Amino acid sequence: MAFEFQINRDIKFNRDKYLLNKAEEFKPNILPRTVSSYRLVELLEDKSKFEGVGINEIDGDLNEKALNKGDSLIIDFKNHYVGKFSINIESIGSPMDAPLCIRLRFAEVAAELRYKSEDYDGWLSSSWIQEEFIHLDELPCLLELPRRYAFRFVEIKVIDTSPKWSAVFKNPQVVTETSANSESIKIPELNDPILEKIYEVSVKTLEDCMTDVFEDGPKRDRRLWLGDLRLQALANYKTFNRYELVKRCLYLFAGMTVEDGRISANVFTKPFPQPDDTFLFEYSLFFGVCLYDYLNEDYDIKLLEDLYPIAKKQMDYSIKYVSEDGLLLTDDKYPIFVDWSNEFDKTTSGQAIMIYSLKKFISLAKLAGDDYSKYQNILDKLINYSKDKLFNSDKKLFVSGENEYNIASQVWMILAGVFDNDKNKEIMKETINSLFPVKNIATPYMYHHIAEAMFVSGLEEETVSFVKGYWGKMIYLGADTFWEAFDPNNQDYSPYGSPIISSFCHAWSCTPVYLIEEYLL
Ligand code: RAM
Predict the structure, then answer these.
(1) Contact present, 75 and 102 (Cβ < 8 Å)
(2) Nearest by Cα to 469 from 194, 241, 188
(3) Residue 432 reports pLDDT greater than 80
(4) Mean pLDDT in residue range 359-386
(5) Distance 226 CA to ligand 1 centre (A)
(6) What is the rounded distance in angstroms from the CA atom of residue 229 to the CA atom of residue 221?
(7) What is the arithmetic mean of pLDDT over 452-457?
(8) Three-state DSSP state, 369
(9) 484, 494, 501, 510: residue to mutate for ligand 1 pocket, most atoms within 8 A of CB
(10) pLDDT at 287 (0 to 100)
């Protein structure tokens, strides 16, 4: 998907009061927790860490450090947190004859502190950079920052005091703002320390993305995306079991659809619920998928009654893109996402995701007692087209676009169950033989789908080493939570032009806990 901001101001959205009230009913409480354990660190060059930036604990007591113009320090809270930061500040020396001016920078990973915000030239707003310049006229004071940040490190730099006095910082703390608490989650014995660590970091990632919705990333974009929700919900069913939070998210999407039936790719919840005028083809379809997955976990007839009509309207919109002979036609204005990478053709992945979603929708229709013959007919056409026109039996792979064979197409066709298990295994083996190692795929989101397709194909041993190689590498590089984007061959890759804007605690990266629970335990 070549990125373009979608601006669709003329679109008319419904606001269904009943559905939005239901969303409100399921709003969780935020559980504040105070974190005041920290240490002081400095950055150092360390080739074994992410982007070559390591940390080193430094001696000395924060309370005893008198800072003057140009001095800085880095507070390390020793883990990733989402919440509000506060600190006491005093002056020592002569009376304060000028304001104190400080710069605060909040970072999820140490490498972020190596970037300068003024050098950022990416396409997402620089206002996401977690940096503040503050003037304080009177000391002592308790500085309580009003914004919520996602961070482990806080760098404080004194821009200026005056030669006559110095600033002293005391009692830094974070009051967390998540609605989950991973302390209650027991890590299973997996007889593999790396997998156990991956499990733990997955849970922490999910926890830090759970506020009053399942956010995609607490640093950025801080909103509810359908593609992320689908995966978070699966991980949640294996860990926190917060069913009401999934219901809230589904009701939010359902309450604010376009008049023609389309469901937004994401919604905002603050200061009040609003749908984004951005649409991704498969994210819209994932509403029905997510609803089906929910009912599979916790059968709730009311939820089905309320939301099935919404899933159906969306499906009726989506099937207009299926040609008479069963090919999914693509439209740049309603792009298929698959991954942030633009280096591969996405048409066959789109075809497979349509099949995947339509199958789950038909299961929903059956639960709802609705006539599904029209949908079955389209599904059959899509499958036949895929088998007859897209599958190359010599190569044992699906083609995409102009004679291109890529990993994403095989993976999604396997997940869609176009062929049976034996054939899936054959295709996955061929994918590994001829298309691995993975290149030009930039997100844990797509890596998740590769891993799941490998598990589904019965390649357990290979999948475990694949998961350990990818998510384990993030841990090896220093991750406390899993990242939004990670290309092991190109560590400073960011979909947005600079890692300073990337999110290092990202919803769609939390899935190893789901994969481990679903396929290994
Ligand atoms: C990013 C978001 C989100 C993802 C979309 C497509 O901007 O962070 O995780 O779903 O892209």
Answers:
(1) no
(2) 194
(3) yes
(4) 98
(5) 9
(6) 13
(7) 98
(8) coil
(9) 484
(10) 98
The answer, yes or no, to whether residue 261 has pLDDT greater than 70, is yes
Non-local CB neighbours of 368 within 8 Å, separated by 6+ positions: 304, 305, 308
**Nearest protein CA to atom 9 of ligand 1, as residue:** 216
- For the record, the structure tokens of 83 come out as 């919440």
Contacts (Cβ under 8 Å, ≥6 apart) of 476: 48
Q: In the prediction, which pLDDT does 5 show?
A: 87
- Candidate from 3, 5, 205, 225 with most ligand 1 atoms within 8 A of CB, to mutate: 225
In this structure, the residues whose C-beta lies within 6 A of any atom of ligand 1 are 216-217, 221, 225, 227-228, 337, 484, 508
Q: How confident is the model at residue 2 (pLDDT cuts 50, 70, 90)?
A: very low
pTM of the model: 0.96
Question: Is residue 321 within 8 Å of residue 328, measured between CB atoms?
Answer: yes
Instruction: Give distance in angstroms: CA of 371 to centre of ligand 1.
Output: 35
Of 228, 284, 447, 486, the residue with max ligand 1 atoms within 8 A of its CB, to mutate for a pocket test, comes to 228
Give the integer Cα–Cα distance in Å for 41 and 50.
16
* Phi, psi for 126 (deg, rounded to 5): -70, -10
**According to the 3-state scheme, what is the secondary structure of 381-401?**
HHHHHHHHHHEECCCCEECEC
CA distances in angstroms from 502 to 50, 91, 375, listed in the order given: 13, 36, 39
Instruction: List, for residues 3-29, the tens digit of each pLDDT value.
Output: 678 998 899 999 999 999 999 999 999
